[in-house]
Amino acid sequence: MSYCTSIGIDTHAKKNQVFALVRETGEFETASLSDDPKELVSWIRKQGFPQPIRCCYESGPTGFVLARALNEAGIYCIVAATSKLPYRTDRQKNDRRDAEWLCRMLDSGAVRAAMIPSVEEESLRHLSRLRGEVALDLRKAKQRVSSFLLLTKTSYTLTKKRWTKTFNKWAAGYEFRCAADTFVFRMKISAVLRLEERLEGIEAEIMRTIELYPDLQEKMKRFTALYGVGKVTAFSLVCEVYDFDRFKNGAAFASFIGLVPAENSTGNKTAMGKIAKQGNSHLRRIIIEAASCYSRPIGDVRPEDTTIPEAVRAKAEKCKHRLRKRNLALRKRGVMANKAKIAVARELSEWIYHIAVMPA
């Protein structure tokens, strides 16, 4: 479909900066409006732009409220995937130029649209991301404790691993030579314990939410057949993606979460770099966490769920042995542990895609 008018909206300022371009004449209009969608709808209708019209703004902290309001008003609006936009080289950047640049990218067809979830889907996504935020805070809090023990040259030798019941009991009663150090250590330990409680509460809420959505349970089932993917990880996969059919193949899904290598090639020279990290960072983090289990010997496996299609279970079983073998092969070649884990996560993302699109 050919559009006559393109409108770019910069929503990252106190006021929405709007730049509208009429393709046939090259005429443009600008405006500075409040973040109330009704004001933007009213302005677009008053201008009498040639039809059809399409609008665009970048994904980010402003969410999808504006896009939903414009689409409900009959004005087609997409949300641009920021990580997929062309790299900007201009040295002059302000709100109005941002809106103009986005409008011209939209008019040239250089904008890749992000999926606009429903209000309910977005709400479930918020819960999934809250769990990721608290888990990240917990890791940082534990790292602060480890750093403080290293700083004070304090050794813990009662068990091989930390954050066990024995370690917590030791930490609660340990006294440093200086009272200030003891106070600091107790505060850092207390922060870890509070975050662990918060994380348990959030995961319990996720489990309660899953029980309320039968369709969500059906989508999650096939993911839990994969080794290393539990209910919380499956919940995040469903909430972040919803429709796997929108991806062309597994490589496209890996690109969506930023697990493809960066490339800097020219002529006959091909140079591959680190992963691009362009895309859904929350999903990338949980898939890498799931892939970490393949660096260890495969332990006890959950009993098979007979409600999951046999073909899905067979593919999940094949995936388990394939990824464990891949990790061992990479480590045998001398590849660093973290690099091997990323490579396994990259392949795991493709297995996730193929299991998601398999017929029931």
Descriptive key words:
360 residues; alpha/beta; Nucleotidyltransferase, domain 5; 3 domains; six-stranded mixed sheet; two-stranded antiparallel sheet; globular
Topology:
Layout (H helix, E strand, L loop, with lengths): L4 E6 L5 E7 L5 E6 L3 H11 L5 E6 L6 H8 L3 E5 L14 H14 L4 E2 L4 H33 L13 H9 L5 H34 L1 H11 L6 H11 L8 H7 L4 E3 L8 E4 L5 H11 L18 H23 L4 H21 L3
Helix pairs in contact: 1-2, 4-6, 4-8, 7-8, 8-10, 9-12, 10-12, 11-12
The description of the largest β-sheet is: 6 strands, mixed
Measure the end-to-end span. Answer: 34 Å
Strand content: 5-15%
Question: Which oligomerization state do the chains in this entry correspond to?
Answer: single chain
Lateral strand order in the biggest sheet: 3-2-1-4-5-6
Query: Structural class, judged by helices and strands?
Result: alpha/beta
Count of DSSP strands: 8
List segments where confidence is low: pLDDT < 50 over at least 5 consecutive residues: none
Helix content: 40-55%
Number of helices: 12
Shape: globular
Average residue-wise pLDDT? 90
| Rg over alpha carbons | 25 Å
What can you tell me about this protein's structure?
By secondary structure, the protein is an alpha/beta fold. It folds into 3 domains: 5-114, 2-Layer Sandwich (Nucleotidyltransferase, domain 5); 119-212; 214-360, no CATH class. 54% of the residues lie in helices and 11% in strands. It has 12 helices and 8 strands. It has helices at 37-47, 65-72, 95-108, 119-151, 165-173, 179-212, 214-224, 231-241, 250-256, 281-291, 310-332, 337-357, and strands at residues 5-10, 16-22, 28-33, 53-58, 76-80, 113-114, 261-263, 272-275. Strands 3-2-1-4-5-6 form a 6-stranded mixed sheet. A two-stranded antiparallel ribbon has the order 7-8. Strand 1 and strand 2 form a beta hairpin. The longest helix has 34 residues, at 179-212. The mean pLDDT is 90.
